[in-house]
Amino acid sequence: MLTALGILFAVAPTVVWTKIARTRSVGFAIGGTLLAGASLLISVQQGWIHAPRPDAHLLFTTLAPLLIACGAGLEGRHENSPPPEWIARRNGAIGFLGMQLALTLVAGLLYALIISEGSDAPPSKALPPLPPGISMINEGTSCGSGGCWRVATVTSGEGLSRPEIIRELGLQQESCRSSGWLLDWRDLCVGARDSGENVTIYAGWGY
Questions:
Q1: Could you tell me the pTM of the whole model?
Q2: DSSP for residue 35
Q3: In whole angstroms, what is the distance from residue 125 CA to residue 113 CA?
Q4: Which of 12, 133, 139, 192 could form a disulfide with 152 if both were Cys (CB 3.0 to 4.6 A apart)?
Q5: Cα dihedral angle (7, 67, 95, 103), rounded to 10 degrees?
Q6: How far apart are CA 149 and CA 193, in angstroms?
Q7: For residues 45 and 35, what is the distance between their CA atoms, to the nearest angstrom?
Q8: Directed axis angle between helix 2-20 and helix 24-45, to 10°?
Q9: 3-state SS string for 149-192
């Protein structure tokens, strides 16, 4: 269900443009660009392209109406006055795209408010991939005054010591990277700790 809604969300501007495009050259150029953008957004939704989903949705719903407006302006330079029925379709398109942008802005604001509480832990995919010979014993979340973390205990089936496991993981030092571009200002920090008996890897949000 969510997948279908995401696809409809992505292709909606392209469908809107097909209803108001009046020339073949500009129509195909703008339509093709919108369809390419929709494909990129769907790829982000499905995880085929690694990018922050909330930011991708906000960027898409902001740029798509601008692109459609540019296309309509280019067509207006080369065409006669549009018929009355086109005016009605244009007004409907403006209303639909405005509603889509407003819903995205509201959802983005709610998302920003939720993450500002710091009560969520990163997903499992935030943990680093394990090299051959190292396996996970357990995984869970841990919360404290500084927020919540995704943690996992790992061990070696090849007799590696705990410092050697950490070196194999490449986590001798904690590393952080930006989690998003616009809505999510947090850093995703990944590291490893020697607990004295096992090695614990973790992923947490930095502010």
A1: 0.77
A2: H
A3: 23
A4: 139
A5: 50
A6: 13
A7: 15
A8: 170
A9: EEEEEEEECCCCCHHHHHHHHCCCCCEEEECCCCCCCCEEEEEE
What is d(CA 192, CA 194) in angstroms, rounded to the nearest whole number? 7
DSSP label of 21:
-
- Cβ proximity of 166 and 150 under 8 Å: no
CA 16 to chain centroid, in Å, comes to 23
Helix (H, G, I), strand (E, B) or coil at 133: coil
| Average pLDDT score over residue span 35-63 | 92
For the stretch 158-187, pLDDT in tens is 888 899 999 999 999 999 988 888 888 888
Let me know how long the chain is.
207
For residue range 102-126, what is the model confidence (pLDDT) as tens digits?
Answer: 999 999 888 877 777 666 788 888 8
Crossing angle of helices 24-45 and 53-78, in 10° steps, is 180
Q: Which residues contact 178 (CB under 8 A, 6 or more apart)?
A: 187, 188
Which amino acid makes up residue 204?
Answer: G
Token pair 């953008």 is found at 37
Cα separation of 31 and 81, whole Å? 22
